[in-house]
Design goal:
By secondary structure, the chain is mainly α. It has one domain. The longest helix is centred in the N-terminal third of the chain and has 13 residues. The protein starts with a helix and ends in a 19-residue tail after the last helix. The N terminus is likely disordered.
Length: 75
């Protein structure tokens, strides 16, 4: 969790890869920090060998949840 939070913070302050890939204003991006944090955490957990193997074989799906009331789907 600490690494994911650092990634989001780094992206917001230094134009890192997360914010740089979104093409949004900083104010819009800041309002999305909870969702960006979940995305970063999912990306991090996918690097674990057993999780990577499970997702590659199709037997494991990873889901994240943010309490905003707005449904969002990512591939």
């Amino acid at each position: 969790m600490r690494q994911a939070r650092w990634t989001v913070s780094e992206g917001l302050t230094n134009g890192g890869t997360i914010v740089g890939s979104l093409s949004m204003t900083i104010s819009t991006t800041r309002s999305m920090v909870p969702a960006i944090d979940v995305i970063a955490q999912i990306a991090n957990v996918k690097t674990h060998p057993s999780v990577r193997l499970g997702t590659e074989q199709g037997g494991l799906a990873i889901h994240g949840w943010v309490s905003t009331g707005d449904p969002v789907s990512m591939s």
